[in-house]
């Protein structure tokens, strides 16, 4: 099936998320939509899938104009979509999830799940999915859950499959398996729209690459294009994709976590007897697939988690049991994983956000009075130093792009003397150009002798920044390894395999996919 978008625009008020976009997806083609977060990729696909009505333009299927009033119309036309955040009901079986919305019945109104089970087995056998129709979704690994989403679309006879950032929650091995599945689907005539900002994956599997920047198509490129060329198209300027840093010049141990356990409200150990240490002048990266205890670890350090045992010390002083204000006051800079809810106050000005943890201290306050001139002076300095793109530091933080919001958070946390710097998902939702800048600032902090802890689900970022890598799986420490550890070894560790077993597997199968990332 051939799919074509002609002059598609989508406006939200006066803001155009998509503007006059043309796109052609041929039958049996993997067509990548490449662009940074916020470029308009997902909005465009939501228009195609009937979730949004286009402001202008039209959609053609096999050269015939179509109009979708909702996802049901899109599915009826042969278009399926796998969202970045899966649309599955955890307590239902695979068959029950697949049947939802397309239920087969018998004897009138009785649900006939056997028909669905049969279809699941047929598709699973055809593509080697290895999915049990009667398995509960909540018991399945994330990679298998994603296969269930693909099966849902194929059961509904999807001829065009939209995959929206499909590797965001996968281990490297699961990512490679998904790319193989995409190739199989293509060989069977299925067209795929692959939405991503990860250059290695795009180059590995795409037939055609269309680059979107700020809601507009800036050009097409073949998968043979250089990664630097693609990155430049994404951000509109030349970008350096590799981080040049000298080996760490480490000092004594400054930060220690010992036998840390965090228990959820249901009694589950989300952090289980975790111990590690960080020396002055080194970056320890915490790696793992999202949801394996990273959030709870940083919250325990910050003093947010209640059900915590063990010990957390900074320069020999216990932090456990202190308030958030006391923890930050001990010299810890903290960049949270969600800047919008935890890092900024959207209705405060940029200048005010830059002093959120220092507003009551000199030079920004004298007694009970704040000092506007000092606050304004600080803001002008930080905006210039961190290249925050804004007409004025008196603008609201909500007026900034995601990348510039992240720069504000980083500027605030890195603009005071630190004894420890922690950054969780430091470049999530940030364009390639801003990633380059923020990574350099993190390494600069390390070079000044500060112990640094980075928490990231992006393996590329971990490999760029880390001096050592600690891998978490289901709240437990799988191991701490050197930053030179091969990518596939780290991927196996992220799936729960011990460092020794992962290294043995790497030696048996050394031909893992290598390449540049962004």
Q: How would you describe the overall organization of this protein?
A:
- With 518 residues, the chain is of the alpha/beta class.
- It has two domains: 3-235, P-loop containing nucleotide triphosphate hydrolases (Rossmann fold); 253-331 and 417-508, P-loop containing nucleotide triphosphate hydrolases (Rossmann fold, 3-Layer(aba) Sandwich).
- Helices cover 33% and strands 26% of the residues.
- The protein has 18 helices and 24 strands.
- A six-stranded mixed β-sheet has the order 6-9-10-3-11-12, sandwiched between helices. The chain has a six-stranded mixed β-sheet with strand order 18-21-22-15-23-24, sandwiched between helices.
- The longest helix is centred in the middle third of the chain and has 16 residues, at 172-187.
- It starts with a strand and ends in a 10-residue tail after the last helix.
- Mean pLDDT is 88; it is low at 512-518.
Write the layout of secondary structure elements.
Layout: E1 3-12, E2 15-25, E3 30-34, H1 41-48, E4 56-61, E5 64-66, H2 71-76, E6 79-82, H3 94-99, E7 105-106, E8 110-111, H4 113-127, H5 142-155, E9 160-164, H6 172-187, E10 191-196, H7 199-205, E11 208-213, E12 216-221, H8 227-235, E13 253-263, E14 269-279, E15 283-287, H9 294-302, E16 308-314, E17 317-318, H10 324-329, E18 332-335, H11 339-343, H12 350-353, E19 365-366, E20 369-370, H13 372-385, H14 402-414, E21 420-424, H15 432-447, E22 452-456, H16 459-465, E23 468-473, E24 476-482, H17 487-494, H18 499-508
Parallel strand pairs: 3-10, 3-11, 6-9, 9-10, 15-22, 15-23, 18-21, 21-22
Antiparallel strand pairs: 1-2, 1-4, 4-5, 7-8, 11-12, 13-14, 13-16, 16-17, 19-20, 23-24
């Amino acid at each position: 099936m051939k799919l074509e978008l002609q002059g598609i625009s989508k406006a939200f008020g006066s803001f155009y998320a998509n503007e006059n976009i043309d796109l052609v997806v041929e039958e049996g083609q993997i067509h990548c939509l490449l662009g940074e977060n916020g470029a308009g990729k997902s909005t465009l696909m939501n228009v195609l899938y009937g979730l949004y009505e286009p402001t202008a333009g039209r959609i053609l299927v096999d050269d015939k104009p179509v109009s979708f009033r909702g996802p049901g119309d899109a599915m009826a036309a042969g278009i399926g979509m796998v969202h970045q955040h899966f649309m599955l009901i955890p307590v239902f079986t695979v068959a029950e999830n697949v049947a939802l919305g397309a239920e087969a019945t018998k004897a009138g109104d009785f649900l006939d799940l056997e028909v669905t089970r049969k279809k699941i087995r047929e598709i699973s056998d055809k593509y080697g999915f290895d999915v049990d129709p009667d398995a509960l979704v909540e018991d399945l690994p994330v990679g298998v859950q994603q296969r269930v989403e693909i099966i849902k679309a194929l059961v509904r006879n999807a001829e065009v499959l939209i995959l929206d950032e499909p590797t965001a929650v996968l281990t490297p091995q699961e990512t490679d398996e998904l790319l193989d599945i995409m190739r199989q689907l293509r060989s069977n005539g299925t067209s795929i729209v692959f939405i991503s900002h990860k250059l290695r994956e795009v180059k590995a599997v795409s037939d055609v690459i269309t680059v979107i920047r700020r809601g507009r198509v800036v050009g097409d490129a073949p998968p043979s294009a250089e990664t630097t060329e693609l990155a430049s198209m994404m951000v509109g300027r030349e970008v350096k994709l590799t981080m040049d840093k000298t080996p760490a010049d480490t000092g004594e141990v400054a930060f220690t976590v010992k036998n840390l356990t965090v228990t959820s409200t249901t009694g589950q150990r989300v952090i289980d007897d975790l111990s590690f240490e960080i020396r002055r002048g080194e970056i320890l990266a915490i790696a793992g697939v999202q949801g394996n205890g990273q959030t709870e670890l940083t919250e325990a350090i910050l003093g947010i988690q209640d059900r915590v045992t063990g010990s957390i010390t900074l320069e020999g002083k216990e932090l456990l049991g202190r308030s958030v204000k006391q923890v930050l006051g001990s010299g810890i800079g903290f960049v949270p994983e969600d800047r919008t809810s935890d890092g900024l106050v959207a209705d405060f000005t940029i200048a005010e956000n830059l002093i959120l943890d220092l507003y009551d201290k000199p030079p920004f306050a004298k007694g009970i009075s704040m000092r506007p001139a000092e606050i304004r002076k600080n803001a002008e300095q930080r905006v210039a130093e961190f290249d925050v793109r804004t007409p004025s530091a008196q603008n609201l933080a909500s007026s900034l792009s995601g990348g510039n919001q992240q720069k504000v958070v980083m500027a605030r946390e890195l603009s005071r003397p630190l004894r420890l710097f922690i950054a969780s998902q430091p470049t999530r939702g940030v364009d390639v150009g801003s990633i380059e800048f923020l990574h350099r600032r993190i390494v600069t902090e390390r070079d000044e002798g500060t112990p640094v802890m980075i928490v990231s689900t992006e393996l590329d970022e971990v490999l760029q920044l880390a001096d050592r890598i600690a891998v978490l799986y289901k709240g437990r420490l799988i191991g701490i390894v050197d930053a030179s550890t091969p990518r596939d070894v780290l991927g196996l560790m992220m799936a729960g395999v011990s460092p020794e077993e992962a290294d043995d597997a790497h030696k048996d199968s050394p031909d893992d996919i290598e390449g540049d990332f962004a």
